[in-house]
Amino acid sequence: MEKIAYFDYAAIVIFGVLIISFITRKMLKGRLNRDFLALVVVAFFTTIFDAYAVAFDHSGDNFYIAKYAFHTLYLLFHSCTLPFYLIFVIGITGSAHKTTKNSTYKILMSLPIEVEVFMLVLNLFRHNVFHFDENGNYIRGNLFWINYAVAIFYLVAAVVHLIVYRKTLQIGRYISIFMIIPAIILAVVIQFLYPVLLIESFAISVCVLYVCLIVIRPEENIDSETGLLRLPAYVDNIRKAQITKRYMVFVFIDISNYRTLNRSLGYQSSSKLSLEVARVISEECRDKRIRAEYYYIGEGRYRLIVENDDRPLVPECAKTIQKRLSDGFTFRGVEISLLANVCVAHWPEDLQDEKSVMLFGGQVDESPYRQGVIYAKEIMRKKNFDVLKDLDSILEDALTYRKFEVYYQPIYSIKERRFTTAEALIRLKTEEHGFIPPDIFIPVAEQNGTIHRIGHYVLEEVCRFIASDDFKDLGIQVIDVNLSTIQCLEKNLAKEISMILAAYKIRPEQINLEITETAAAFEQNELMTNIENLSARGFHFSLDDYGTGYSNISRAIEMPLSIIKLDKSITRIDENTKLYAIGVNTIRMIKDMNMDIVAEGIEDVETLKKFEEMGCDYIQGFYFSKPLPRDEFVKFIKDHLEKNGIEPETKETENKETAGKEE
User: Fold this and answer.
1) In 3-state terms, what secondary structure has residue 510?
2) Rounded distance between C-alpha atoms, residue 657 and residue 14, angstroms
3) Can you give the pLDDT at residue 658?
4) 331-339: which pairs have CB atoms within 8 A and are 24 or more residues apart?
5) What pLDDT score does 662 carry?
6) Does residue 614 carry a pLDDT above 60?
7) Measured between alpha carbons, how far is 333 from 331 in angstroms, rounded to an integer?
8) Are 558 and 541 in contact (CB under 8 A)?
9) CB 198 within 8 A of CB 5
10) How many other C-beta atoms can be found within 10 angstroms of the C-beta atom of residue 581?
């Protein structure tokens, strides 16, 4: 009975398409890609030799040499399929350092296939595995069972490995890889029961195609510009290293001026430049014989994960990469200068988990360009890295146990010659890290979502202060409360703020809401809706940090703003004579729009007088006071009232009269 080879032909097409796809899409970098491609190639040749063996079997009793050759090659490659599957499993679980470094394990894993190769070579002379009778029929020998034994050995090894290292894989990927085994077993059983159906290779080809689409996921894991692995693969590799306790070295490579080059060159040219940078990096690693995984995570940011055995070679290689990239390229006839920062970090000495790696990478991105190789410890010392690494838990703990404290910075009214306003500022102090600056924890709070709870905490503390007896005698009319960019886009913001004020019986006009220029630069409808709803409820608004780079006067006109707060970048007029002209014209323009002006960052009497002459309404800065805790703020204001002969009772009456007029 002739065997049906159509399934083999279909399998050859599937394997061929996968191989061509890997080559044309530059999916040859990365250990996992190479392991997978090796598996596909072995299965491809297994199917080809199977098809040729069947073709010569159909030819009759001739071509004995060809029959022996192709059947031997088929069995050899067929036996190698499962060992290569095991290699792929080891690679995708990130556990090669646990296996390939163990000499006993290597000998144990290589021995069965070596025995089978020896038996197949010996079979050419002894015919104990298979032979052909006088009619040219294929006959299995008394040692044919070795093929099954070897297959079962590697199958069991793969199953055990998947079970032991199951935590390194997400559940979807784990199931996809594991299900190959029963699928192949089912195909083998079907082919054993129905020898005419050569379905095994076809089943393997379908399983391999499925793994490529679901597990390898070229579109998600391979960067089309450089052929390097992308961010998801990078994060996945880090997670596996943490689970398997792998030692390795990270090399962070950032092109600091990438965005400038991208704007200048255009998309297509900058893509080719990214490819050229990737080529230089891989060339240097090959020249230094460094085994590394290459990643491109976008915007000129490259990452290398180097095997721990090659650790001594990394410093020299990193130095060469930095020099070659910083020397620049002749790109399309133009000399291009690259500002390449190269940083080396060790795992787990410097970095211990996925979060610390990603956080540290962000610190490298923000570092100014410098020649030479940077080492992790340098950045960690300068960038409050220990605080940043634990900041999620620090913020959660501070919110749970109310460890935040609201400070108040007095704002001086030039017209009334006294402090009529104060800005509420959040502060955080921990026993372990001391004071943590807001510019450190606020961005993290915006990223992890705790900024909403922090904003509510500040507003509630301010309302509690305004409702207290201490506040009544201070003559402070308004407290400024900052709204973060994320808060400004929060749904039901007006309702939530009103509920907090109602709980403490605070009038909306006693709270001035500050919006940063960054928030004002957004064109979201949600922002304007929130401002309009709050304005309708009686709240007043000021635009904070005016002059920080997002200045857009048309946005200021659209919003119901009462006050513009000039950032210190404008008020430092003594540092730059041109700033004086900018300050004069900015103040004149704002005053023409009937808005009050607060000059922030005033630190000396000379600057105060200049801004008073320019027509500013309010002054805020260290000249008067730094931000103070509540008790110190109360004492400061009372001392000021006493020093200037203002009786608290008179001031309270005056404040009530002002409030009555506003109502």
Assistant:
1) helix
2) 85
3) 42
4) 331/265, 331/269, 331/272, 331/273, 331/276, 332/269, 336/261, 336/273, 337/257, 338/255, 338/257, 338/261, 338/277, 339/255, 339/256, 339/257, 339/369
5) 40
6) yes
7) 5
8) no
9) yes
10) 11
Could you give the C-alpha distances from 623 to 550, 601, 618, 619, 642, in angstroms and in order? 27, 8, 13, 9, 19
Residue 310 backbone phi and psi in degrees, to 5 = -95, 10
More confident site: 562 or 658: 562
Q: Is 645 exposed, middle or buried (0-12, 13-18, 19+ CB in 10 A)?
A: exposed
Give the chain's length. 663
Long-range contact set of residues 55-61: C-beta below 8 Å, sequence gap at least 24: 55/5, 57/3, 57/136, 57/138, 58/2, 58/3, 60/136, 61/132, 61/134, 61/135, 61/136
From 159-173, 501-515, 644-658, the region with the lowest mean pLDDT: 644-658
Per residue in 281-339, pLDDT (tens digit) is 999 999 999 999 999 998 899 999 998 989 999 999 999 999 888 887 777 677 787 88
Helices (H), 467-604: 469-472, 485-488, 493-503, 517-520, 525-536, 553-558, 568-571, 577-592
Q: Please state the φ and ψ torsions of residue 233, each to the nearest 5 degrees.
A: -70, -35
SS3 420: strand
Q: Which residue shows structure tokens 């509540």?
A: 630
Q: Comparing C-alpha atoms, which of 240, 602, 224, 209 is closest to residue 410?
A: 602
Cβ neighbours, 10 Å, residue 393: 9
Tokens 């596996």 belong to residue: 240
Q: Which residues, other chains included, contact 527 with Cβ-Cβ below 8 Å and sequence gap of 6+?
A: 488, 489, 519, 520
**Token digits of residue 574:** 């003594």
Which whole-number Å values give the CA distances from 344 to 102, 240, 288, 534, 537, in the listed order?
Answer: 27, 20, 16, 50, 55
**In contact, 340 and 253? CB cutoff 8 Å:** yes
pLDDT, tens digit, 9 for 90 and up, residues 435-464: 888 888 888 888 888 998 999 999 999 999
Q: Which amino acid is at 301?
A: R
Note the pLDDT tens digit of each residue in 214-266: 888 877 788 877 888 889 889 999 999 989 888 999 999 999 888 888 877 77
Q: Which range among 485-494, 516-525, 588-597 shows the weakest confidence by mean pLDDT? A: 516-525
Per-position b or e across 256-294, b if 16+ CB within 10 A of its CB = bbbeebbeebeeebbbebbbbbbebbbebbeebebebbb
> Sorting pLDDT into bands at 50, 70 and 90, what band is 549?
low
Share of the chain above pLDDT 70, in %: 92
The encoded tokens of residue 408 equal 């108040």
| Three-state secondary structure of 7-42 | HHHHHHHHHHHHHHHHHHCCCCCCHHHHHHHHHHHH
Q: Name residue 431's amino acid.
A: E
Structure tokens at 219: 């579109």
What distance in Å separates the CA atoms of residue 406 and residue 426, rounded to the nearest whole number?
5
What are 16-43's pLDDT values in tens digits? Answer: 999 998 888 777 777 888 899 999 999 9
* pLDDT score at 60: 63
Q: Which residues in 172-218 belong to E strands, given as ranges?
A: none
Residue 374, beta-bridge partner list: 343
Mean pLDDT along residues 349-361: 86
Q: Quote helix, strand, coil % in the chain, to nearest 5.
A: 60, 15, 25
CA angle 60, 66, 67 (to 5 degrees): 55
> Three-state SS for 580?
helix
Q: Which domains are delineated in the chain?
A: 6-218 (1.20.1070), 223-388 (3.30.70.270), 403-423+452-630 (3.20.20.450)
Band of residue 132 on the pLDDT scale cut at 50, 70, 90: confident
d(CA 26, CA 20) in angstroms, rounded, equals: 10
Cis, peptide link before residue 648, omega less than 30° from 0 = no
